[in-house]
Amino acid sequence: xxxxxxxxxxxxxxxxxxxxxxxxxxxxxxxxxxxxxxxxxxxxxxxxxxxxxxxxxxxxxxxxxxxxxxxxxxxxxxxxxxxxxxxxxxxxxxxxxxxxxxxxxxxxxxxxxxxxxxxxxxxxxxxxxxxxxxxxxxxxxxxxxxxxxxxxxxxxxxxxxxxxxxxxxxxxxxxxxxxxxxxxxxxxxxxxxxxxxxxxxxxxxxxxxxxxxxxxxxxxxxxxxxxxxxxxxxxxxxxxxxxxxxxxxxxxxxxxxxxxxxxxxxxxxxxxxxxxxxxxxxxxxxxxxxxxxxxxxxxxxxxxxxxxxxxxxxxxxxxxxxxxxxxxxxxxxxxxxxxxxxxxxxxxxxxx
Length: 352
What we know:
The protein is 26% helix and 32% strand. It has 352 residues and is α+β, with helices and mostly antiparallel strands. The radius of gyration is 21 Å and the shape is globular.
């Protein structure tokens, strides 16, 4: 049984219940912002009801997702949400400490950075007649990393076994929330040396080590390379990419996420739905097993980026928000050892 709620936690629970009554359509992430708390703290008010706190070896928790069968995996940042339906087919983990990572391959594909996993909860969301058992992961600031929802044809028995295995002895709603450590980047970068390293790239996966070597912030790096490897393009470029890729059925890759999980789409996109609601603008992909929701009004800058590789130039489109944080990246679908799709290269070349 959970510990008795403290006065603060009890008060938050009451505020949350009242908020839901007055704002039934507002999602928990936005509700947390309006209530001035983290999403994890708001979810934790349900401990003892439909929420259970989990703990244990995060790598083992990730591996256990294979047992769930058909799920919906959701990963997001402030401006972009990716949702995939399918199974966690192949899960691998590597390294340790700050370099402890996981990879998921198959219908759901992610890159996992365990050092930023801090809290986990199992919960049951009820929407009318629908019941959505899920597992949610948060960072130490209480911001959602990823959420996994068991579908109607998923394995509910496996879900219950996972929850039982990872249930924490601590079921208190009082979370030790702390701010995310600020990354310190170099203020002055030797542009000539940096661009020489960029020109010497042989694999796109070498780009991140290059950034670390020069202590370069991602958008700053793109700006340093402007005119040689990058060019600024209109923030409407993402709409053009999705609409043209859909029309021609050009297979693309979409990378979006946060510091704890990067989710990846590798396929064609079909149903593109732009939406405007008051001051917000969205571009959406509404396919059977994949949804993307991207707030285009939060895009501050967009760039076409070229990276050398052994397989030729690899071209991407990268979107950043006003805080210089990456929103999403778009590529033409390719595998190591393959050259870039000509149709993708031509599509990006036409963006301005």
